[in-house]
Amino acid sequence: MGNAGDEESGRSRDIAPAAVKQHLNGIGAAIAPPMFAALLSRMFNWSRSGVGPRLLAAVLLFSSIVTLTLTALQLYLDYDREVGVIQTRLDEIGRSYTESIGESLWNLDQNQLKLQLDGIMRLPDIRAVEVREIADRPNPIHVSVGERSTRSVVTRDYPLNYTAQGTVRPIGQLHVEATLSDVYQQLLNRALIILASQAAKTFLVSMFIIYMVHLLVTRHLVAIAEFVSKYSLARPPPPLQLERRPPYDADELDKVIDAFHGMCANLERAYGDLREANASLGRDLEIRRRAEEDARASEQRFRDYAETASDWFWETGPDHVFTYISDRVGTFGMDRKALIGRRRCDAAFDRDTEPQKWREHMATLDRHEPFRKFEYRGRDVAGRVRHFSVNGQPIFAADGRFMGYRGSATDLTEQHETEERLRQSQKMDAIGQLTGGVAHDFNNVLTVITGTIEIIQEGLQDRPELAAIAQLIDDAASRGAEITSQLLTFARRQPLEPREIDVNGLVVETAKLLKPILGEHIEIVTRLADDAWSAMADPSQLSSAIVNLAVNARDAMPGGGKLMLETANREFDGTGSVSEVTRGAFVMIAVTDTGHGIPADIRDRVFEPFFTTKGVGRGTGLGLSMVYGFARQTGGTVAIESEEGRGTVVRLFLPRSEGEASTRTEPVQALAAARGHETILVVEDDPLVQGYVIAQLGSLGYRTLVAADGATALALVDQGAKFDLLFTDIIMPGGMNGRELAEAVRLRRPGVRVLYTSGYTDDTIVHEGHLDPGVALLQKPYRKLELSQKIRETLAGEPPA
């Protein structure tokens, strides 16, 4: 091996000039000695591909990063030092020249100033010096030397003072400007020298590393690759020997050669085993025949599973046309035979409305990629929209040819409908919370308006023109109170007084009231279930809900029509279409009209407050909102079905009462305002409402104590204040509500009577829409008569335990 290596080296030296001339176009031969040209040529040819370029790039990149980092650090330190020298020089100018320049300026000696400034200019790096006199006279002294600049400079301003008779007087200012241009030039020259020297060193080191890697590793790897490419099991060549000069110790390359020789021996043994394997090929063919029979049986099992699974399975050809669909698809209203021979996009309902989704899906199919949970919409045999989710896996033949897709599909229609109902319910709850808060604040304002207008009306009885205006204000306030009541009903913040009621009897009585309201052109028909259960609901609110639904139906039938009131019993197990009712027994009241119906695009918004399709001035848009809030607060729900041109049906579901319906009570006749002489502790945080209540109670003969919050009221109680009734708002600031205040007062004064008032109630005294037992509540807004009657009723009632 050693001789061969020497001969090869000799041959390389002999042909080096020609090789260099061929690969370097004569440049290397012209400028370098023959031996160096040969070495450079071999390295150049070797580095054009393989490990060399990557190794060179890595070395150069790392060296460049290190060089640039160290150079930047050195330049920064040099810059900091040079700038420090300039700063020190400027400080020395301030200490050494200001006194003498101030003396010359005081003496108005411009020649001396010019000489002194020239002396400063002779200092290194000083670019400009300027003296300005501070004086209240024309043409103050201004002497400058040098040219001022705004770039690459360091400036200092020193005040010039003169001491006369022990008094220091400012007489001018010295401006000194030092340039950094020389510093920058020095740093630039230094950087160029460092970078040039480092670049040369890096290049030489890199070339040396590349040459050593070639000499020690890559040339032997090329020899191994050539030997492997020519190896034949039929005629094995002699063992591979690398051309390496002795002596040398065994290294990784020798281990590779040994491993390769061992592999060749194994291959020769395997070649013999292959002949034996041919003998068993017949047995393998028999096994394959049996495997094909098992595959056919497996395919039949798959089809059996496909026909009995909850989803359905499908197959398509290379053109994505359905070739197989399991019979299970018919369970979901789809025609299996009509789908065979069509593409999925041809049967889709949303291809035009969502083109981007379909373009991406078709691109996936064209790329023959698997897909999961691709959702789209289609129509069943009855024309109803259904939602599908599809999974697919591409099928390829043994030769790699694309055969089509195979997958499964799931019907998500019920899931989508459930999610949509849930979103609608959450939206209505959010709107309800907002409207409840608005109604609360509005009721406080209406309380003052309705109360004070009564006082104004009493004073205007002899002035009819002003009394008529006051009546208009009173009517507007009443309308505002009605609107806030409807808002609170929608928000489920209206205290209800539910009891067992005969639904059929209430519907009949309400129908009698509807005849003059709806007019002669509307026919009213009732269809009442003979076995209708009793319902647990507030009868007045239920009657108002039916009237609101009937008025909406009348507006939908401007040319006349039929209104049907229907009752029935319903039981839900939690899986029906009425999503807000989980399970239980309910009484249904349905209001059906033959009007123009509701467009599909606004059907989901009809229960929102103030949403209306009527013209301006023809409604507030709170009728259906009130019905919705009343039904939900009662424990039931409301559902609507409508189609344009075919009328609307609204179904009200109320919880069933377990007992018998209570008998109707006669309406209570209105009484005159009752007076009294007791003392009432009024707790109200709103100043306007507080002033109104005190005025009204005073006019009724009562004495009042006043507090703006719970803490102030308790302080009055602890001070021994005497009173007969606690009249308190429920929602108050200060961390204590009306219920907590009443309980604290009763701990100090057992048996005290309490009357609550509020613009709306939270869960303080109302639970599940019902007032707590034994609680007296006066809802805002209220009038003087209502206030007097509720106070007398509370004072005359049984004292609390």
- Which residues form runs of ≥5 with pLDDT under 50? 1-32, 615-622, 661-671
- How large a portion of the residues is in β-strands, by DSSP E? 15-25%
Q: What's the name of the CATH homologous superfamily of the domain at 494-574 and 581-655?
A: Histidine kinase-like ATPase, C-terminal domain
Global geometry: flat
What does the average pLDDT come to? 75
**Could you tell me how far the N terminus lies from the C terminus, measured between alpha carbons in angstroms?**
118 Å
**Which CATH-level-2 architecture of the domain at 494-574 and 581-655?**
2-Layer Sandwich
Number of strands: 23
Radius of gyration from the alpha-carbon trace, in angstroms:
51 Å
For the largest sheet, list the strands in their spatial order. 6-5-9-8-7
Structural key phrases:
five-stranded antiparallel sheet, 801 residues, PAS-like_dom_sf, transferase, alpha+beta, Heat Shock Protein 90, histidine kinase, 19 helices, Rossmann fold, Ribosomal protein S3 C-terminal domain
Can you put this structure into words, describing what you see?
It is a single chain. The chain is of the alpha+beta class. Among the domains are: 87-179, Ribosomal protein S3 C-terminal domain, CATH 3.30.1140; 494-574 and 581-655, 2-Layer Sandwich (Heat Shock Protein 90), CATH 3.30.565.10; 679-796, 3-Layer(aba) Sandwich (Rossmann fold). Helix content is 49%, strand content 19%. It has 19 helices and 23 strands. The protein has a five-stranded antiparallel sheet, with helices on both faces. Strands 11-13-14-16-15 form a five-stranded mixed sheet. A five-stranded parallel sheet has the order 18-17-19-20-23, sandwiched between helices. It is flat. Residues 679-795 form the Response regulatory domain.
